[in-house]
């Protein structure tokens, strides 16, 4: 499997890296205006330390998982950052802001590798954005995201079991997907409230209904760009972002990994891919439930 991925060539068209490159330039402009980056060589050297390299690796690993399985960028990156000593508040804000850029690269990559169902993508887009903005606003002032995390985790645990059952079925049965707009709005809302959940909730539900893993993961990941961008801007307006070193590290690592995650999702067969997704959802759900109890 790894040999196949490494032997693949990236798309010859430059489209997939033009937007990520522009995103990095935009971020560098923001950093410069905030006094984080200057023409002072010593200041730049102090910014690009070994600690920064660790954040790059975190972003790379999280985006590989998210791009290939359609979920768990937030959980993966948050887990690594917390283990590196980053505080929960800084970690959450950094991940939300970094996702504005990494999900853009992932969306472009999935479009380039033709992993998109356009009808599904359009159905997820607007409701997901509205849900994410609402959730980010409420979390800034009203709702405690930690309170509802166990309930979301239990829902995802059930979905994980359904996905594994579907994967083990000998015949593939696709049920008609209903109320996609409601699912997308709920996924966007809970993603902002709980610090993650767009992929696990939306992807898991759609896969549980028997949809094709490749096009489901690609479409959900593509729509996630708009969802992440909307929530990221909302968080910036109401809470601000100060952890620029963490943010930039996550972005650089995520942009590096995005094309490879999109390639992997088109190469893994339906059954092992659904088993991987189901196992991941169950594991993350159990982890969240245990952390909320202990």
From TrEMBL:
<dbReference type="Pfam" id="PF01925">
    <property type="entry name" value="TauE"/>
</dbReference>
<feature type="transmembrane region" description="Helical">
    <location>
        <begin position="52"/>
        <end position="74"/>
    </location>
</feature>
<dbReference type="InterPro" id="IPR051598">
    <property type="entry name" value="TSUP/Inactive_protease-like"/>
</dbReference>
<dbReference type="InterPro" id="IPR002781">
    <property type="entry name" value="TM_pro_TauE-like"/>
</dbReference>
<keyword id="KW-1133">Transmembrane helix</keyword>
<dbReference type="GO" id="GO:0005886">
    <property type="term" value="C:plasma membrane"/>
</dbReference>
<feature type="transmembrane region" description="Helical">
    <location>
        <begin position="16"/>
        <end position="40"/>
    </location>
</feature>
<feature type="transmembrane region" description="Helical">
    <location>
        <begin position="80"/>
        <end position="99"/>
    </location>
</feature>
<keyword id="KW-1003">Cell membrane</keyword>
<feature type="transmembrane region" description="Helical">
    <location>
        <begin position="120"/>
        <end position="139"/>
    </location>
</feature>
<keyword id="KW-0812">Transmembrane</keyword>
<comment type="similarity">
    <text>Belongs to the 4-toluene sulfonate uptake permease (TSUP) (TC 2.A.102) family.</text>
</comment>
<feature type="transmembrane region" description="Helical">
    <location>
        <begin position="246"/>
        <end position="266"/>
    </location>
</feature>
<feature type="transmembrane region" description="Helical">
    <location>
        <begin position="180"/>
        <end position="201"/>
    </location>
</feature>
<feature type="transmembrane region" description="Helical">
    <location>
        <begin position="151"/>
        <end position="168"/>
    </location>
</feature>
<feature type="transmembrane region" description="Helical">
    <location>
        <begin position="273"/>
        <end position="293"/>
    </location>
</feature>
<protein>
    <recommendedName>
        <fullName>Probable membrane transporter protein</fullName>
    </recommendedName>
</protein>
<keyword id="KW-0472">Membrane</keyword>
């Amino acid at each position: 499997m790894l040999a196949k991925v490494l032997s693949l060539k990236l798309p010859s068209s430059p489209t997939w890296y033009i937007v990520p490159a522009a995103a990095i330039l935009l971020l560098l402009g923001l950093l410069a205006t905030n006094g984080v980056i200057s023409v002072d060589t010593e200041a730049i050297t102090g910014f690009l330390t070994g600690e920064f390299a660790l954040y790059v690796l975190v972003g790379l690993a999280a985006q590989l998982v998210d791009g290939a399985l359609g979920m768990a960028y937030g959980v993966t990156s948050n887990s690594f950052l917390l283990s590196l000593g980053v505080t929960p508040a800084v970690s959450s804000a950094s991940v939300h802001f970094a996702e504005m850029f990494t999900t853009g690269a992932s969306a472009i990559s999935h479009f380039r590798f033709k992993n998109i169902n356009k009808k599904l993508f359009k159905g997820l887009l607007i409701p997901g954005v509205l849900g994410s903005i609402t959730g980010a606003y409420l979390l800034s002032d009203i709702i405690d995201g930690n309170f509802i995390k166990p309930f979301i985790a239990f829902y995802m645990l059930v979905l994980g079991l359904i996905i594994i059952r579907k994967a083990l079925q000998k015949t593939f049965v696709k049920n008609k997907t209903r109320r996609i707009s409601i699912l997308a709005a709920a996924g966007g809302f809970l993603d902002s409230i709980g610090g993650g959940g767009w992929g696990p909730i939306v992807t898991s539900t759609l896969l549980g209904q028997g949809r094709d893993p490749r096009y489901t993961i690609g479409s959900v990941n593509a729509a996630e760009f708009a969802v992440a961008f909307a929530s990221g801007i909302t968080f910036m307006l109401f809470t601000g972002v100060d952890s620029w070193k963490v943010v930039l590290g996550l972005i650089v690592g995520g942009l590096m990994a995005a094309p490879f995650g999109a390639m992997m999702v088109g190469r893994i067969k339906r059954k092992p891919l659904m088993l991987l997704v189901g196992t991941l959802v169950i594991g993350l759900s159990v982890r969240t439930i245990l952390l909320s109890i202990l």
